[in-house]
């Protein structure tokens, strides 16, 4: 029989286990349902071969395996392929083969990450195929060569216009953000805008603000995207094509996160019992004498948790995944505010 004491002990144990899961979802597999979110609405059915296709008109197609996207433009002079994610792999060839007899002539790398272009070699085995990317992408691929991501034939610094027969694809480098050379891709005639690992329609971004190497640049890219005249947005991930509303919605989420993390850093300069550095530090140091990393680790976790909590009041369960990656977004935002934007709160120069 369970005594009151053991019941309490069990509850405490469960509470501890649950709190241990905050920010670490690896061993935890119960998340908020996708039902009722845009994440479900935009799903595209996959065929027996494992891919789905969306006809975007005038020779433009998006091919997906449900997680990744490839953009394809059929032209009178050959096929343009933007990105070749390894998970879609040979299905990109099959999908194109089922659309046209015209061969692939150009492969555009949105950026250098293997999960988006690691199947490029399937096309570049043909020496007539021309590869195109921003020059930082070429630099990175020269730094860490990979036969599955062959070197670039054409590189550009700011922008490049690919005129492929009857199609026009404008490539623009908005500056470092998600990666050093991640570009905006714009199909002029169809008003289709693509930027990979930037906006994740239906979902919050991938963890740590999509692993942006330069968060201020990644944040600014939302405005740079919205400056285009576009009807369709492709984010390179998950399900189907989206639109302007998805970009606006993520911009609002990121702005809220920014404001809430800013406020959390400011609050940590007060004697707030949950986040005040002057309150937390002595307690942590008492148990960990002289251990500055312990003191600072607990402090950063506390302000990130406050930012996550406040952000969740508005956003939990709306874009899918706030419960999964929301805490990591708060951590990434706090770091960027501190290091990139000099919002140091109690660790800045004091009056
Ligand atoms: C361009 O040509 C391709 C291939 O013939 C065709 O599928 C596509 O609709 C054309 N697009 C435009 C914008 O003319
Ligand atoms: C058409 O797609 C199927 C898979 O759905 C594939 O087996 C076949 O080879 C494709 N045809 C061409 C010509 O690529
Ligand atoms: C495109 O790049 C060229 C230089 O290569 C520059 O002169 C031009 O202003 C750029 N256009 C845009 C829209 O950035
Ligand atoms: C974008 O798509 C959503 C549904 O996915 C729709 O509710 C919204 O009105 C669309 N926005 C625009 C500008 O077309
Ligand atoms: C965040 O919310 C959780 C769950 O409600 C709570 O236990 C925790 O104390 C909150 N943290 C902060 C710093 O407000």
Walk me through the structure.
The chain is an alpha/beta fold and 351 residues long. The termini are far apart. It is 40% helix and 17% strand. The model is unreliable at 1-22 (pLDDT under 50). The protein has 2 domains: 38-242, Ribonuclease Z/Hydroxyacylglutathione hydrolase-like (Metallo-beta-lactamase, Chain A); 255-346, no CATH class. The structure holds 2-acetamido-2-deoxy-beta-D-glucopyranose (5 copies). One 2-acetamido-2-deoxy-beta-D-glucopyranose (NAG) is lined by residues 158-159.
Q: What is the β-strand count?
A: 12
Q: What is Rg?
A: 23 Å
- The name CATH uses for the topology of the largest domain is Metallo-beta-lactamase, Chain A
The CATH class label of the largest domain is Alpha Beta
Q: What structural class is derived from the secondary structure elements?
A: alpha/beta
CATH superfamily of the largest domain: Ribonuclease Z/Hydroxyacylglutathione hydrolase-like
Low-confidence stretches are: 1-22
Helices, by number, come to: 12
Mean pLDDT: 92
Strand order of the largest sheet: 1-2-3-4-5-6-7
The unique ligands bound to this protein are: 2-acetamido-2-deoxy-beta-D-glucopyranose
Strand content: 15-25%
């Amino acid at each position: 029989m369970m005594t009151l004491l053991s019941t309490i002990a069990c509850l405490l144990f469960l509470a501890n286990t649950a709190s241990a899961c905050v920010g670490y979802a690896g061993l935890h597999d119960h998340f908020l349902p996708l039902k009722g979110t845009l994440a479900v609405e935009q799903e595209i059915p996959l065929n027996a071969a494992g891919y789905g296709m969306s006809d975007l008109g005038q020779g433009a197609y998006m091919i997906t395996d449900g997680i990744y996207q490839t953009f394809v433009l059929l032209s009178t002079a050959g096929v343009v392929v933007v990105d070749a994610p390894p998970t879609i792999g040979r299905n990109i060839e099959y999908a194109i083969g089922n659309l046209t007899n015209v061969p692939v002539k150009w492969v555009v790398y949105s950026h250098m990450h293997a999960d988006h272009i690691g199947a490029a070699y399937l096309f570049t085995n043909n020496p007539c195929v021309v590869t195109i990317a921003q020059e930082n992408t070429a630099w990175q691929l020269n730094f860490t060569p990979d036969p599955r991501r062959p070197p670039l034939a054409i590189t550009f610094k700011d922008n490049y216009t690919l005129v492929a027969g009857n199609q026009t694809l404008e490539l623009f480098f908005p500056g470092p953000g998600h990666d050093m050379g991640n570009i905006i891709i714009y199909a002029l005639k169809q008003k289709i805008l693509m930027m990979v690992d930037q906006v994740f329609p239906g979902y919050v971004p991938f963890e740590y603000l999509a692993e942006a190497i330069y968060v201020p640049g990644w944040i600014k890219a939302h405005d740079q995207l919205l400056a285009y005249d576009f009807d369709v947005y492709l984010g390179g991930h998950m399900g189907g094509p989206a639109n302007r509303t998805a970009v606006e919605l993520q911009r609002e989420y990121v702005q809220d996160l920014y404001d809430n993390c800013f406020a959390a850093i400011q609050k940590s300069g007060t004697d707030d019992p949950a986040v005040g550095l002057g309150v937390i530090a002595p307690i942590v140091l008492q148990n960990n004498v002289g251990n500055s990393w312990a003191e600072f680790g607990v402090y950063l976790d506390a302000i990130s948790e406050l930012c996550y909590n406040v952000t969740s009041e508005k956003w939990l369960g709306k874009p899918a995944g706030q419960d999964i990656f929301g805490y990591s977004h708060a951590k990434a935002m706090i770091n960027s505010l501190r290091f990139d934007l000099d919002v140091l709160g109690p660790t800045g120069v004091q009056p």
